[in-house]
Amino acid sequence: MALNMTQIAEKNLRHFLLCIGRYMEHEEYDRERIHWIVPRSPVSYYNAVLQTQLQSHEVSSEIEKFIERLQYWKVFGHWFITPSTQPSGLDALLVQHEFTFIEEEPQLFYDLNQTDSLPPQRADLEVQLVRNQASLDVYAGILAHGFEDSAWVSEVFQRLGLSDQAPFQHYVGYFEGSPIATASLLNCGDTAGVYFVCVHPNYRRRGFGIAILIDVLRKAWQQGYKHVTLGATTEGYDLYLKLGFQKVCDFRFYEFKY
């Protein structure tokens, strides 16, 4: 079961980055042993190596090839290391090629059969689905307070659209009529990825981040999803575990700048 959850988390990350990257002008390199996409994002996270299954003798040339494409497009990039990444010594080879270790992010998994055990929804937070451009602008305005990539990602979301067939569903939480929080669900089969949980700075440390997450988990269950994945921040990690999330694994992020 643990291995299966790990595979789901890895698949969701790849799906997230491809959904976003393929809707912009991009270069994609998809081979049996390595897969990367460079949508020329000003934020390095999205110009990324998504999957690596290399033999040791192939690694240096593939790293150099990725670096060359980043330099060609004049952007920085990320290399994601997940439990299935091969070879095992890739971290050291990335550092040798001037990648910098950024962080290790816990990947969490939630079984939506547990939703009955969630705390009751806050009566003072109304969570609404983003259905039009005006609401998307409100969503983006909140997101700008928590994510450096908000402007670029908002452009992607405009291209993706807001139809029922769009891969993302975006939500805005309103407190006393004011928009204060965001969260998004990404459709990945039976699994939904939770992304962009953000609270306006004036309303932080009052439980609104967890409140919108609880609401979105219930919405995911009502829509027929079976599981949810989430990359946890340091601040939210313990709170997510208390809600019933399980830690599956860690992803390590390396960044190349020049």
Structural notes for this entry:
The chain is of the alpha+beta class and 258 residues long. It has 2 domains: 2-106 and 252-256, no CATH class; 110-249, Aminopeptidase, CATH 3.40.630. 33% of the residues lie in helices and 31% in strands. It has 7 helices and 11 strands. It has an 11-stranded mixed β-sheet with strand order 1-2-3-4-11-5-10-9-8-7-6, sandwiched between helices. Strand 1 (27-30) and strand 2 form a beta hairpin. Helix 4 (133-143) packs antiparallel against helix 5. The protein starts with a helix and ends with a strand. The mean pLDDT is 94. It holds the Pfam family Acetyltransf_7. It comes from Leptolyngbya subtilissima DQ-A4.
Task: Write a compact overview of the structure shown.
With 258 residues, the protein is α+β, with helices and mostly antiparallel strands. It has helices spanning 2-21, 59-73, 90-96, 133-143, 150-160, 208-222, 237-243; strands spanning 27-30, 34-38, 48-52, 77-81, 99-111, 125-129, 168-175, 178-188, 191-199, 227-231, 246-256. Helix 4 runs antiparallel to helix 5 (150-160).
